[in-house]
Task: inverse folding
């Protein structure tokens, strides 16, 4: 029997040919090796390689710039980043197409980069490029990824952060807005050349003449005629002009919450929290970091903590009765909450579920955590904003009529917990370690001013997001 061959890709001519029918191996069974298109005359598809052969992760440093009170940090790369994770919004053809365009730009302009994708995304994009790409089990990402670029909304950023939820160090995230609201994703994709270059060259130390718009030469295709002064650090092969020694990309460090779930016997059951979606199926049950160390004077291991960027939720789920939850602050009893549920949120999460539940809006640089009730029985139960150092315990009361409640962390992990279970939450320690490295938080690259933009470079865009995206205090009746 004769069947029509698959037409060539857009890069080739569209024509019909006839060929003998043959069996095609299902895509899900392809190994990580060179893949070929079945179309006659079409360009060769990308080779998918394993990240195991890539160099280990480069960890940048973050510095507080002099003469500023904004709270933003400066991104300082010791050497050029090499391993870049590209994460498009799942289920969005526009985001996938833009990811392919962005990958082609990076490969042609920065050929030393290694572009990495989640396994299912690699299968989506490999036929659209003709250069090698990388993938692996996402549990290996923390050892390999230098920087993350997301093309989606707030959910895509949460997905990126979830790959590092068991780790104290997260790579910088450069986020392009393809989301419904995209409150956390500041950059427009039209600015991808400038955005990438500002993040990539930040801290290179190469002197420049024009520090106001260092991106314009590369974005317009103009080559730099400035001599190279920093060949020792590896920046000599980078195209165009750098940010210069006195300017670096600005970082908004978003604090996370550390979570431990304990059964009625006091045993940590974090490993029992199951992934909520297929994209989170890789999430590890424990971290190989210092969480496996023993406590001083004891043989008992320190239970691994899960880090939440947005919130921890405990709620009644499908049960008909209200949840009853005892709340403790620093081991001191605060109140017995009777409600649909309780939210513990970070400042970043204050504009998510907590906001819909009537919680306060908190600037992400305010070191705090929030307790927000969901539909409480008592009208006097108001949201609370507490210091980040506060240790909060939520205990499932034995007064619960339905026995079990449900716990969810950032919407990525969840489980049902019985009476007597405790959810212990505290703020993550953030700062520079003794060896000069940085631990804690989720560093996000802030959109800086473009050419001719008079906006203060220390502006973190938060006020603009409140007005433009959340329509803060928008007058009733205005069209």
Result:
């Amino acid at each position: 029997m004769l069947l029509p061959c698959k037409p060539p890709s857009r890069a080739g001519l569209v024509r019909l040919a006839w060929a003998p029918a043959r069996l095609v191996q299902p895509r899900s069974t392809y190994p990580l090796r060179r893949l070929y298109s079945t179309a006659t005359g079409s360009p060769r598809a990308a080779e998918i390689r394993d990240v195991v052969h890539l160099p280990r992760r480069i960890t940048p440093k973050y510095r507080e710039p002099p003469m500023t009170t904004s709270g933003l940090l400066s991104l300082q790369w010791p050497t050029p980043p090499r391993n870049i994770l590209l994460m498009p919004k799942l289920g969005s053809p526009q985001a996938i197409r833009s990811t392919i365009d962005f990958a082609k730009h990076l490969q042609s302009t920065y050929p030393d980069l290694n572009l990495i994708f989640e396994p299912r995304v690699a299968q989506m994009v490999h036929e659209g490029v003709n250069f090698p790409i990388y993938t692996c089990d996402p549990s290996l990402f923390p050892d390999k990824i230098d920087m993350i670029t997301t093309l989606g909304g707030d959910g895509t950023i949460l997905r990126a952060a979830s790959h590092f939820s068991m780790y104290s160090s997260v790579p910088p995230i450069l986020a392009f807005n393809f989301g419904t609201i995209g409150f956390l994703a500041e950059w427009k994709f039209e600015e991808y050349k400038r955005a990438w270059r500002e993040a990539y060259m930040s801290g290179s130390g190469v002197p420049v003449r024009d520090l106001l718009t260092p991106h314009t030469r590369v974005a317009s295709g103009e080559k730099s005629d400035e001599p190279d002064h920093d060949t020792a650090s590896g920046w000599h092969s980078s195209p165009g002009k750098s940010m210069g020694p006195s300017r670096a990309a600005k970082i908004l460090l978003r604090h996370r919450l550390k979570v431990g779930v304990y059964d009625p016997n006091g045993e940590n059951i974090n490993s029992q929290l199951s992934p909520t979606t297929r994209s989170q199926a890789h999430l590890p049950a424990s971290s190989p970091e210092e969480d496996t160390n023993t406590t001083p004077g004891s043989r008992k291991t320190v239970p691994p903590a899960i880090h939440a960027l947005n919130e921890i939720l405990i709620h009644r789920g499908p049960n008909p009765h209200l949840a009853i939850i005892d709340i403790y602050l620093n081991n001191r009893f605060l109140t017995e909450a009777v409600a649909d549920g309780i939210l513990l949120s970070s400042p970043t999460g204050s504009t998510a579920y907590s906001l819909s539940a009537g919680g306060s809006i908190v600037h992400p640089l305010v070191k705090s955590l929030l307790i927000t009730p969901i539909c409480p029985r008592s009208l006097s139960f108001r949201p609370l904003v507490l210091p980040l150092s506060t240790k909060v315990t939520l205990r499932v009361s034995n007064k619960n009529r339905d026995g079990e409640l449900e716990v969810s962390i950032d919407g990525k992990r969840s489980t049902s917990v019985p009476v007597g279970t405790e959810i212990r939450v505290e703020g993550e320690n953030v700062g520079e370690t003794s060896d000069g490295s940085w631990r804690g938080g989720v560093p996000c690259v802030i959109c800086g001013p473009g050419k001719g933009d008079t906006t203060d470079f220390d502006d973190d865009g938060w006020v603009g997001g409140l007005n433009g995206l959340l329509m803060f205090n928008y007058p009733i009746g205005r069209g």
About this structure: The CA atoms of residues 70 and 459 lie 7 Å apart. The chain has two domains: 45-252, 257-285+301-429. The chain has a mean pLDDT of 80.
